[in-house]
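Notes continue from the previous slide.

Worked example: a multi-chain complex. Inputs as given:
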Amino acid sequence: MDAMLRIDMSAAGGPRARTGPLGEYEGMGGRGLTSAVVAREVPPDAHPLGAANKLVIAPGLLSGTAAAMSGRLSVGCKSPLTGGIKEANAGGETADALARLGYAAIVFEGKPPKDALFTVVITKEGVDIRPAEELRGLGNYDTVERLKATFGDKVAIISIGPAGEMKLPAASIACTDTELHPTRHAGRGGVGAVMGAKGVKAIVLDAAGIPHRQPKEPERFAAANRVWIEGMKKHAVTGEALPAYGTNVLANIINEAGGYPTENFSVGTFAGTAKISGETEAALETERGGLATHACHSGCVIRCSGIFVDKDGRYVTKQPEYETVWAHGADCGIDDMDTIAMLDRLDDDIGLDTIEMGATIGVAMAGGLLDFGDGPRAVELMKEVGKGTPLGRLIGSGAAITGRVLGVEHVPVVKGQALPAYDPRAIQGMGVTYATSPMGADHTAGYAVATNILKVGGFVDPLKPEGQAELSRNLQIATAAIDATGMCLFIAFAILDQPETFQALLDLLGAFNGSAVTADDVTALGKKVLDTERDFNRRAGFSAADDRLPAFFRTEPLAPHNVTFQVKDEELDAVFSW
Amino acid sequence: MVRERQESGQTKDRTPETLDLAFESVPSADFDVLLMEGVGVQVPPGYTAGRLVRERLGLATEALQARVGTLCLNGSPVDDLETCALGDGVRIAVSGALPGLAGACLRRGSVLAAMRAPITLAATGPGRGGTVTVRLFNVMLRLAGPPLLAQGVLLDRERLAEFLAGRSRRFWLSARSAHLDGRALDTPLEQSVQASLPSGRLRLRIAASGEGGGQETLCASS
């Protein structure tokens, strides 16, 4: 994985690929690499859909190795949704395939003349770029089926649906899973629109027969991987809760704590939660002959996903995750799992960010376009997005634009990106991360809960209300570092509680490169990534005024605890003071 | 004894009738929805959340420390279960370990507890006892559900009737016997149980039957 593939989509005579060394990007991976390329090579004032923007697709530092849970793929660009730097990442099989093919990144540059559309095929023999007119307008499921007919079922595929082709700000990029379904998405920030603007419909990765990337210290690496896997299996979150119930195991307790945003963030509890909880979802999947425990990529031992089937046992979609069930469920007042699963299927097929779409429909409900709880109309609205009707294009543009057009004051966005499934009035520290992340409101930006091990930013007394900024800072640093490794963020719980598991991660990184890696190195990596991203945003015109939650979080108390967001602006401004 | 409000507005203590259901193999998953939405448990004055977890949910001290990730009282995360006194009408929710930053924040004694400070339980009163609503989530359904159901839970008649009406044929086929305050109900149980339910609040106890059809695991009522 020492090569960078650059594809100039505006080259005379058609797209031209050239493979070269990593050069100044040597030793980087995942989010660290995508953000470095974007910050260095994209003019901060570039239009996100213009030729000057770049789309960077990068597996993590450990992707393609035998390290378990190392299958995350990072996608970076200047975001058409936020106007700032963006990294969105996804599971599935594509990071492993791209890394085994030897590429640390694919960088799409320029844009094709007119409205041309291409498929990029990457094999061990090289790169082939061919017209993709026959795929135009197809959903991700049909796109993958067509490509499978041509290239067989041993490939991994990255693609966009109609939303990406229409360059909608909520468009995602799909990655295929272990069944070659396009269910794992780099969802946030409109990265699919940038892929559409580059004229790329799909990337086919054929790594058949290529072995895992080999570490410099194989025995040390194998030993670390054993400890790593054992650590995941023995931890209550990664070894029990996530495999049994998936990420939606959170619904009941977040609702209980009054932090489950309901009906466009108007209250913190939803009466229908028990009907759409992870427990209910898993039982339904099992009863119908689906799967409640399933890995999204090879080598994952957490297996937090599943297969959702209809009442007749026919495949509908992967197990809708916590964010999806919340966004299309509680936030829209919908408590029917089959409706939510259909909306998830439409997100994946049209190629849309599930959080942005749920939040946008919630805003549309608040704006009177449809009633809260109207599942059938929500499904119709999603189909309009796929068809590209004027109303569909509005909804596909996200919550901020939809709220503006419909005259809604209550619009839950930061930097133009919709808030995820935790109300920041109940869990205030989450609000600090929503407000200050360079990505816009993002629940994964401060997810890596390893701060007590990394000890970055000083000690924070957990029993005192002060210290939200310090905690958020530490979390964002740790997360940025993990995003660079290609590791799934769900490893965070095991490394929080089990020092030997955290050490195993350091040993995996060190053994692969034949060096020693310490916690300080991880901290430095996280800080470097964040500094790079913040600097790009500053040059793109962002200021402290953008690191704020919408005003209603400070003025409207959230039932049942009747609390408002209380973290002071000065604390928000101190998050990145290091 | 449970305290019930009369039409006159007065309250009155009453011993609820007990419905005992015995199964060849208890269909635990069938009771999940009841346990997630909450069931009543009677507790004496001075009772704490810690005692409830140990004595009613059957989790010894070590298991409590290892398995109870989050406990909320009326929606507020509790860090110290031993000082969390229970009073009439409160709601307790018990969960195993949870993913996500929010899951980590809501943990008992979390290093990130500051991030949910405004909703953290500050203090409780002396704890006068009474009927507490207990909700169980995720892994707690299998760990704590069976012992709780074996000791008995309090439910309003309407809710119990609705629950029983929604059970599948498989549920009733696995039922071996039903007793109302010790009086055996006739078969088919599906009809006789529904027809026999008294008004008001009653206690439901669930047990696994032995080979001879007798009940094995009925415990002292709460």
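Summary box: The CA atoms of residues 42 and 131 of chain B lie 4 Å apart. Residues 2-208 of chain B form one domain.
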